[in-house]
Amino acid sequence: MQIILLSGGSGKRLWPLSNDVRSKQFLQLLTDENGNKQSMVQRVYAQIRAAQPDAKITIGTNAAQVEIIKNQLGENVNIVLEPERRDTFPAIALACAYLFSENNVKGDETIIVLPCDPYTEVGFFRTLTGMDKLIAANAADVALIGIKPLLPTSKYGYIVPSSEIQTGAFNVSRFVEKPEEEKAAKLIEEENAYWNAGVFAFKLKYVLDIARANTRFENFNELYAKYGELEKISFDYKVVEKAKRAAVVPFYGKWTDIGTWRTLADEMPVTTIGSVIHEHTRNTFIVNELNIPIIVLGAKDIVIAASPDGILVSDINESSHIKPLVEKLDKTVK
Known about the structure:
Largest sheet: 5 strands, mixed, barrel
CATH superfamily of the largest domain: Spore Coat Polysaccharide Biosynthesis Protein SpsA, Chain A
Order of helices and strands: EEEHEHEHEEHHEEEHEHHHEEHEEEEEEH
Strand content: 25-35%
CATH topology of the largest domain: Spore Coat Polysaccharide Biosynthesis Protein SpsA, Chain A
Number of helices: 11
Helix content: 25-40%
Distance between the termini: 44 Å
Number of strands: 19
Radius of gyration: 21 Å
CATH architecture of the largest domain: Alpha-Beta Complex
Number of domains: 2
CATH class of the largest domain: Alpha Beta
């Protein structure tokens, strides 16, 4: 099994701790089983190794993140670099070309693509075995993991299943992109829909053929040189939603997309990090990376984060709306 971990992101939703270089997946705000500080990418990498010890992992990223990836995962980690930031289809196509021409991976081998930052359990990565079996048996062109929803939300796309292919795997009827909560509730109740976890499995040749229909190339170096010619589009739109045979493998365990201060606070092992003194606070999370102290009194439902890039003080439930403000800040600074 060949696994591609995608590592990108601009780091705006967890500002000011995250930025273009240190995106959210590298923030060491979690802890491992021994109580050591751990980032999201370190956690995911370790979980894959535990669940799929024979899998070969390649990380697709950009040049700005290479140093921090090697610092956190080791010097020997396999990395393929984008020459420029585009979208997930070009990034995955480039990584596939790299595996084919640089690592000699055969065209009929299963490739599984994952984001590098879900907060989940080891069992999630054992589900990859079922996806591999579907693709190897030619039961589907593309396989996905579907998360059993905890509640209707507009944060995620939804996968609507149809007939059962084999035990624990279903054909996909259709995809619904981030519906309003009322529609999401109907999808869950009436059609047993799943959240789309953004995990894709396919045969290497399948995606290379799609990429070559867009841009002619024979090997990784040629595609790297022509990277800007690849359509700037998500893998979901370019490949998954156009697949004639898509399948979903459900996962019923714990899974969270840590994309905001609200969701991160739910998983942080402590409520304060750094030089912080607080009294009479409730449901308040404070992270201080500065060498000056922060004192907080009587705060409720607040997130406070301080770094050399800036200081955030926000109602914890409003913190998910930070991205447009950071983008406005970027324009002002420039």
